[in-house]
From TrEMBL, chain A:
Membrane topology: Multi-pass membrane protein
Function: Cytochrome c oxidase is the component of the respiratory chain that catalyzes the reduction of oxygen to water. Subunits 1-3 form the functional core of the enzyme complex. CO I is the catalytic subunit of the enzyme. Electrons originating in cytochrome c are transferred via the copper A center of subunit 2 and heme A of subunit 1 to the bimetallic center formed by heme A3 and copper B.
Protein known as: Cytochrome c oxidase subunit 1
Reaction equation(s) it catalyzes: 4 Fe(II)-[cytochrome c] + O2 + 8 H(+)(in) = 4 Fe(III)-[cytochrome c] + 2 H2O + 4 H(+)(out)
EC number, UniProt record: 7.1.1.9
Pathway: Energy metabolism; oxidative phosphorylation
Keyword Kinase tagged: no
Natural source organism: Cytobacillus eiseniae
Transmembrane segments: 29-48, 68-92, 104-128, 153-179, 191-217, 237-262, 274-295, 307-332, 344-364, 384-404, 416-441, 461-483, 554-574, 580-598
From TrEMBL, chain B:
Organism in which the protein naturally occurs: Cytobacillus eiseniae
Coiled coil: none
Domain named Heme-copper oxidase subunit III family profile: residues: 1-207
Predominant location: membrane
InterPro entries hit by this protein: Cyt_c/ubiquinol_Oxase_su3, Cyt_c_oxidase-like_su3, Cyt_c_oxidase_su3-like_sf, Cyt_c_oxidase_su3_a-hlx, Ubiquinol_oxase_su3_dom
Membrane topology, from the record: Multi-pass membrane protein
Record protein name field: Cytochrome c oxidase subunit 3
Similarity-based family: Belongs to the cytochrome c oxidase subunit 3 family.
TM region(s), chain numbering: 28-51, 71-91, 103-121, 141-166, 186-206
One Pfam family recorded for the sequence: COX3
TrEMBL record, chain C:
Membrane topology note: Multi-pass membrane protein
Catalytic activity line of the entry: 4 Fe(II)-[cytochrome c] + O2 + 8 H(+)(in) = 4 Fe(III)-[cytochrome c] + 2 H2O + 4 H(+)(out)
UniProt keyword list: Copper, Electron transport, Heme, Iron, Membrane, Metal-binding, Respiratory chain, Signal, Translocase, Transmembrane, Transmembrane helix, Transport
Organism this protein belongs to: Cytobacillus eiseniae
Ranges for domain Cytochrome oxidase subunit II transmembrane region profile: 23-118
Boundaries of every Cytochrome oxidase subunit II copper A binding domain copy: 129-246
Domain Cytochrome c: 259-353
Protein name according to UniProt: Cytochrome c oxidase subunit 2
Length: 624, 209, 356
């Protein structure tokens, strides 16, 4: 399929991607879109660091700075980290469980297009009168009084994107439960699949509260409701609760797949089975569960009272235990192993000390009476960048290098990869380590400037230089991607030579139907077991037969487009003299509903790849 | 067994909604979806409870002044009955009796429409008699959002079931559309369960103040 | 052996305090130079948890280094595939639980201690309250401090007695803010819908009479969030009482003494007094107090919360408040001021003093 695609013209390829329901292509889309938003968010970060380079700086105005910091956070979490994580889940998880596709290929595409349209909508705010400016948390009293349409873009854009994520979560849950290959029991699933599984469950239960919160905000701002208006009986604390009931699990939604990727990497490049696999699974489940019990630790200073604060403090610190289990398991995976220092492994190794830093400050923040000092200061900024950059972003870089051959059939340059690593790693610690102290010295977060003479100057300069080093690292990575794509040297099924799980048994990239014959899984690290037995590939679990495939569809695109259009109507209908708002809102919703209607009444049985074609096509079959 | 295959009573399996992998996926996925919906409604209930009777002026009407149990009781009975009729429909689906299934689904839709009509009447009553609107207070916003979300779900469910009935009216049951009918009825039950909670939390608890 | 371990622990503590004090920031501002009971307790907890965390990190670091040095790939041998080790796994489950418990106990104790505000409500037989209570009302972008038991109001510069608990009622009048005096203890939010209560204590031994404590808003509240600073002046009880009685003595707006200042007062009475009060009484309802109370403006150390109080800054601020505090509520509420008007207003405002 991939060779056919290359021969097609640009238009045909574009149409192919617009209508695709293949999880591997959707992964490409997520990677490209998420990568783009990652660059946008990074640019915003640089603006922040330039503004804070010196006291009383006027690089950007106060109001504009608030827009930048809001969009930096929102973009990085919702439009960069989430879709990039989804890219790897889509690309790898179905291969790891030995499936031909996800359970709902159509919904998979729908999830992507909803995310993309939501992201585009949110970022259009820059060109349409100003971006949201109340922080990525968008606390209600500020966000309902914020002028212009910035917060409207936030509420509607995230609503659309969030719907896509929810759909993705349900899809992965069903895929993992129903689509595993013969012999792939739960306790034989690779760690990355396990984390995908838990994360999908978290998404399912964490996103609806955000949906409700965003609805309330939309109703307040655009339709005259009074949920958050204290003068009308409203209560802004409701927003804080909903946001964090979503927001805290969201952090785990990002970090658990990162743990999964690192677990794969430690095992592969230490040539050793993951140490304490079952306790790793247990720890993942426990973290996911506890993730729902701790949201109020973001609200210790809100005034919930000492009893609530104590309960949430202890629950929060308890999360350190399963996380610690994981750290030691990774260390002991390497212990006694045979470590090869490839680029993915460098990221994984650097992750351990970086993430521990974030973890210990997490315990300090969880201890509520200390948190009264840390809350809303640069200490918090340092903490969450240590976990999200030191954990999630490191994992995304590691995953990009590790899975690039599986996704695109060619290897990223190792030398450039290591340069990226060094620049980014040094820049990261320079930027954020010193920020712990800035917070302790009395610098609040989200300040557009600071006054001279408070001892903040040098530290902020160091921090800003670090940010530029990180940017340099990212640029090297981009160069690497371009060079690699131009050279396009094809690699075999197991380019790292020590692949352990099913995806490495397939060609790089795998054929569009993944497995010609579903593999028989005989234990954890299925492919490794076969290799150790001297076999070249997996033992098939079925004879070659017709393969049922889903049809491509343009409807996911149109469903998402309708909501995108409706959002404009909802946003502008309240403006003075606006006459087109309500009609556009109704038109958009009908467009979406109509698309769903077409999907519902048009039978879609998919098609079959005939057995004969599979038999003829020796190269595509993989070794399964 | 091919999904489009023309079926007969003899060939019709015991669980027609779970015969193919696609159907099994749909079945499981829909349960997860309902899990998410449960959290959604739980959040709306929490909002409502937090803002119940939260009004800016003391002369405004509160829950205990607004609600009249007889009307809401009738609505509850109608919706509960419609849940029962959809069970009958699924019973006939499993027995490959397409015509009876269509009739019972038709009754379900009619009952759903009655419910919606009464709900619209009820809202209209609050607005005009009591000045209790979406924008009049936080209480009003929370009430109409919770009950309105449920109402929107009912409306969507009616559209869905009607679409399925019309789309399949000519060709009858097969293994492709049986799961579709099945999840639609699951959705209908879910809406019903949510209403039972609304009846209890909003109306009954509202009466006692 | 045991003694050695004890010594190590002591030296670790010493090291941590050394590191923290070497980079401890500025007095009257930094949380690492605590100047009150709350901040001190929070600082002690920081040290305790830092020590525990450093110990954990040391263990990890040792394993980490050994692994990286010893287990590099040297040949193509396949290492033994180890499933796990129950004894080890139990150790690294139980020890962290114990460490967390060690932090949890003082945490929970202090949470309850910091939340204990019963004394605020404790009334004497004659209905008076002994505790010092301050109502802190945060607005875009300024702070009002009302002393309900004394019946007086001031703004931007909080005045408190040292060495005793000062109780705060926190509320916001527009959007959410957060009240924070880093060196004395932090922090609690000013919500829009409810009053939050907590207490702080200011140690006299850490008070430098020439410097005031820096306070600030810690919750994003709009463009000028970064500039929503205030100062806290901690006085010995006697001086504090004197300040209170001086404030109470101002019953009517003081009449300016010089000609220039009198002109200024005229302008003030025409353009400013609608929002800015110059008498300290808390008789007007809180919602009607639209801007900082200026009764003792001439004695404050700051203008607009963060500018040094001198004539030049005052004129600049009055001329164009928007450049100094973007998004503030004073911009465009009055016409353009001529240099003469500025001189007059400045003379009047600088003369607003209660403690002569």
């Amino acid at each position: 399929m991939s060779t056919i695609a290359q021969k097609k013209g640009f238009g045909a390829t574009l149409w192919d991607y617009l209508t695709t329901v293949d999880h591997k292509k959707i992964a490409h889309l997520y990677l490209i879109a998420g990568g783009f938003f990652f660059l946008v968010g990074g640019l915003e970060a640089l603006f922040i660091r330039i503004q804070l380079l010196k006291p009383n700086n006027d690089f950007v105005s106060a109001g504009f700075f608030n827009e930048i910091l809001t969009m930096h956070g929102t973009t990085m979490i919702f439009l960069a980290a989430m879709p990039l994580v989804f890219a790897f889940m889509n690309a790898i998880m179905p291969l790891q469980i030995g499936a031909r596709d996800v359970a709902f290929p159509f919904l998979n595409a729908l999830g992507f297009w909803l995310f993309l349209f939501g992201g585009i909508f949110l970022n259009l705010s820059w060109f349409m009168g100003g971006a949201p400016d109340a922080g990525w948390t968008s606390y209600a009293s500020l966000s309902i009084t914020s002028e212009g349409h910035g917060i409207d873009f936030y509420a509607l854009g995230l609503q659309i994107a969030g719907l896509g994520t929810l759909i993705g979560g349900i899809n992965f849950l069903v895929t993992i439960i129903n689509m595993r290959a013969p012999g792939m029991t739960y306790m034989r699933m690779p760690m990355f699949t396990w984390t995908t599984f838990i994360v999908s469950a978290l998404i399912l239960f964490a996103f609806p509260p955000l949906t409700v919160g965003l609805f309330l905000m939309t109703f307040d701002r655009m339709f005259g409701a009074n949920f958050f208006d204290a003068a009308m009986g409203g209560n802004t604390i409701i927003w804080e609760h909903f946001f964090w009931i979503f927001g805290h699990p969201e952090v785990y939604i990002l970090i658990l797949p990162a743990f999964g990727i690192f677990s794969e990497i430690f095992a592969i490049f230490s040539r050793k089975r993951l140490f304490g696999y079952s306790s790793m699974v247990f720890a993942t489940v426990l973290i996911g569960f506890l993730g729902f019990m701790v949201w109020a630790h973001h609200m210790f200073t809100t005034g919930l009272g000492p009893i609530a604060n104590s309960i949430f403090a202890v629950a929060t610190m308890a999360i350190a235990v399963p996380t610690g289990i994981k750290i030691f398991n990774w260390l002991f995976t390497m212990w006694g192993g045979s470590i090869r220092f490839t680029t993915p492994m460098l990221w994984a190794i650097a992750f351990i000390p970086s993430f521990i830093m974030g973890g210990v400050t997490g315990v300090m923040l969880g201890s509520a009476s200390q948190d009264y000092q840390y809350h809303d200061t640069y200490f918090v900024v340092a903490h969450f960048h240590y976990v999200i950059v030191g954990g999630v972003v490191f994992a995304l870089f590691a995953g990009a290098h590790l899975y690039w051959p599986k996704m695109f059939g060619t290897m990223l340059n190792e030398f450039l990869g290591k340069i990226t690593f060094v620049l980014f790693f040094v820049g990261f610690h320079m930027t954020f380590f010193i920020q712990h102290f800035l917070g302790l010295w009395g610098m609040p977060r989200r300040v557009f400037t600071y006054l001279p003479g408070q001892g903040f100057e040098t530290s902020n300069v160091i921090s800003s230089i670090g940010a530029f080093l990180m940017a340099a690292g990212v640029i090297v990575l981009l160069v690497n991607v371009v060079i690699t794509s131009v050279k396009n040297e094809k690699v075999g099924n197991d380019p790292w030579e020590d692949g352990r799980t099913l995806e490495w048994a397939l060609p790089s990239p795998p054929p569009y139907y993944n497995f010609k014959q579903l593999p028989l899984v005989r234990g954890l690290d299925a492919y490794w077991l076969e290799k150790m037995d001297g076999k070249k590939g997996m033992t098939p679990a079925e004879p070659i037969g017709d393969i049922h495939m889903p049809n491509n569809s343009f409807i996911p695109f149109t469903i998402s487009l309708g909501l995108f259009i409706a959002a404009f109507g909802a946003m502008f209908h309240g403006d003075e003299g606006n006459t087109w708002g309500v009609p556009v809102l109704i038109f958009g919703l009908l467009f979406t509903l109509g698309s769903m209607f077409v999907r519902s009444i048009k039978d879609d049985h998919g098609y079959h790849i005939p057995k004969k074609e599979l038999l003829d096509d020796k190269d595509l079959g993989g070794k399964a | 067994m091919h999904v489009e295959e023309k079926m007969t009573v003899e060939k019709w399996p015991a669980s027609p909604e779970k015969q193919t992998l696609e159907a099994k996926n749909k079945f499981l996925g829909f349960w997860f979806f309902l899990g998410g919906e449960t959290v959604l409604f739980a959040s709306l209930f929490a909002t409502y409870l937090a803002l119940k009777d939260s009004v800016p002026r003391s002369d405004m009407y509160l829950a205990k002044d607004l609600f009249e149990i007889p009307l809401v009781f009738v609505m509850t009975m109608i919706l509960l009955t419609s849940s029962l009729t959809s069970v009958y429909a699924m019973y006939h689906m499993k027995n490959f009796d397409f015509k009876k299934m269509q009739i019972w689904l038709g009754i379900t839709v009619v009952l759903g429409l009655c419910f919606l009509g009464l709900e619209i009447y009820e809202f209209n009553h609050y607005v005009h008699e009591f000045g209790h609107t979406f924008t009049s207070s936080a209480f009003g916003s929370a009430f109409y959002t919770l009950v309105g979300f449920h109402g929107a779900h009912v409306a969507f469910g009616l559209l869905w079931i009607t679409t399925l009935m019309i789309r399949n009216s000519k060709r009858g049951l097969n293994l492709y559309n049986a799961p579709k009918f099945y999840v639609a009825s699951l959705y209908w039950h879910f809406i019903d369960v949510v209403w039972v909670f609304i009846f209890t939390v909003v109306y009954l608890m509202g009466m006692v103040g | 052996m045991k003694r050695l371990a004890k010594w190590r622990l002591v030296s670790l503590f010493a090291l941590v305090s050394l590191i923290l004090s070497a980079c401890s920031g500025q007095p009257h501002l930094s949380t690492l130079q605590p100047a009150g009971e709350v901040a001190q307790k929070q600082y002690d907890l920081m040290v305790l948890s830092t020590v525990i965390m450093l110990a954990v990190m040391a263990v990890v670091a040792v394993i980490f280094v050994v692994v990286l040095v010893k287990f590099r790939r040297k040949d193509d041998k396949i290492p033994k595939q180890v499933e796990g080790n129950h004894a080890l796994e139990i150790i690294w489950t139980v020890i962290p639980i114990l460490l967390i418990l060690i932090i949890s106990v003082p945490t929970v104790v202090s949470i309850f201690k910091f939340a204990d505000v019963d004394a605020m409500e404790r009334k004497n037989e004659d209905g008076t309250v002994d505790a010092t209570v301050v109502n802190v009302r945060a607005s875009l972008y300024w702070w009002e401090f009302e002393y309900p038991n004394e019946g007086i109001v001031t703004s931007q510069e909080l005045v408190v007695p040292t060495d005793e608990k000062v109780y705060f009622n926190l509320i916001a009048s527009d959007v959410k803010h957060s009240f924070w005096i880093p060196a004395v203890g932090g922090k609690m939010d000013n919500n829009t819908e409810n009053v939050n209560k907590f207490w702080l204590e200011f140690d006299s031994e850490h008070v430098d009479p020439n410097e005031l404590f820096q306070g600030r808003c810690a919750e994003l509240c709009g463009p000028s969030h970064a500039l929503m600073d205030f100062k806290a002046k901690a006085l010995p009880r006697a001086e504090y009482d004197q300040w209170v009685s001086d404030m109470k003595n101002v019953e009517e707006a003081e009449v300016a003494t010089t000609d220039l200042a009198q002109q200024g007062q005229e302008i003030f009475n025409q353009s400013c007094i609608g929002c800015h009060a110059v008498t300290p009484s808390n008789g007007t309802p809180a919602e009607a107090r639209l801007a900082p109370n200026l009764t003792n403006f001439g004695e404050r150390s700051i203008i607009a919360g963060y500018l040094e109080n001198n004539e030049e800054n005052l004129k600049d601020w009055l001329k164009d408040p928007e450049t100094f505090k973007p998004g503030n509520k004073m911009t465009d509420t009055y016409g353009k001021l001529t240099p003469e008007q500025l001189d007059a207003l400045t003379a009047y405002l600088m003369g607003l003093k209660v403690q002569d």
